[in-house]
Amino acid sequence: MMWLAILLQLFAGPLSAVAGREPTQSAIGLQLQAAVFAPALITYSKTVDATTMNNPANWPRLHHAEGYDTPGLRSSYVQEASWTPTGSSDAVVFDYAGSLFRAQPGAYDGWQDGSTYWPMKYNNTRFLTCPDLGVPICTRWLLIGDNSIDEMDDTIQLGKCLAETRAFGPAALFTAQTPQITSTLAAVDAAAVGAARRVCRVKQPAIVAAPTGPVLGIDAVRLEPDGAAPDWNLSRHPVGTAARGHTVLIATYYSVTNAPTGSRARFHEVIQVGASVLLDKRDQPFTLALPSRLSRHVIRFVPPSAGSYRVTVTVQVGAASAAGTLTFQVR
Question: To bridge 30 with a disulfide, which of 98, 118, 261, 283 should be the other Cys (CB 3.0-4.6 Å)?
């Protein structure tokens, strides 16, 4: 197909025209099943040595400012697949390169370089959200209309492994087939993550069940001067002393998540000097302003005498509760 030949020259195919030596430390375990590229069909699938991967004329090396030898590439597995939608004479091409590095920092450097160098070269590039792959290090960017070609690239790092994937095609075709293209690329990404976990021995994170009720926490209980403004960043140095007979604030900073609209909070404060209870106060419940990233509940208190004071604050929202304490000296 004449168009595809021109396109591959423009966008530097993934080494399919280069006869690379088989590496001594093979990345064969990073090979993906052909089915994950569907409806595209595999046109190239091979292990590639570090020297061949480092050719700046080829993808994915051309998307990096530095060579792969700098971060310590061992070997890679490279695959390409092509899809010509029904009724079209043009094709969308999918590329994948799974690479194994000597150490995790090298793979991370490769991810950082591959995620920033190429997008910085073009004004018509924008970053997008990666698919939900359960990995913390992933970048996706979209290059629109370069030589009338659109290209979407994903770069993912897990341990010593780096996965680089992309899809590209004529802009009109890319726009018309975006749902299928993004679905296929996500499937390739998911398979690449699975292969990287096996080869680089990165465990699947444990699935934590979402909470079914309110999640409540007390960030701090603080002694503050009467009339003090809220310290939302909790950056002011905590006050540790007060003067008897002078009003102070007992300020509780707390957060509530996953609470239904209309949830009510009830505070209970106990202030003691030694074994003596000076205050046992149960506040009237009130309706929360949700969502609550950080809120402040305040009571005013006048210490009657010198001594060492201890404050215990408990807050309850539904079945959830949290407690915090404060100690201060009164002179």
Answer: 98
Torsion from C-alpha of 141, 95, 83, 15, nearest 10 degrees? 130
Number of H helices, E strands in the chain: 5, 16
Answer yes or no: is pLDDT of 205 > 80.
Answer: no
Gap between the Cα atoms of 42 and 39, Å rounded: 10
Contact 51, 75 (CB under 8 A): no
- The yes-or-no answer to whether 2-199 and 215-330 have a common fold is no
Taking all residues of the chain, what is their mean pLDDT, rounded to a whole number? 87
**CATH architecture, range 2-199:** 3-Layer(aba) Sandwich (3.40)
pTM comes to 0.59
Query: Residue 331 is encoded by which pair of tokens?
Result: 């002179």
123 Cβ contact partners less than 8 Å away, ≥ 6 residues apart: none
Tell me: the pLDDT tens digits for 216-236?
Answer: 888 889 999 999 999 887 777
CB environment 142-160: b (16+ within 10 A), e (fewer): bbeebeebbbbbbbbbbbb
275/278 Cα distance (integer angstroms): 10
Per-residue pLDDT, averaged over 147-175, amounts to 95
Going from N- to C-terminal start, the domains of the chain cover 2-199, 215-330
CATH topology of domain 215-330: Immunoglobulin-like (2.60.40)
- Across the beta sheet with 215-225, the strand order is 215-225, 248-257, 292-301
Three-state secondary structure string covering 101-112: ECCHHHHHHHHH
Mean pLDDT to the nearest integer, 144-159: 90
Mean pLDDT highest for which of 123-137, 139-153, 161-175, 290-304?
A: 161-175
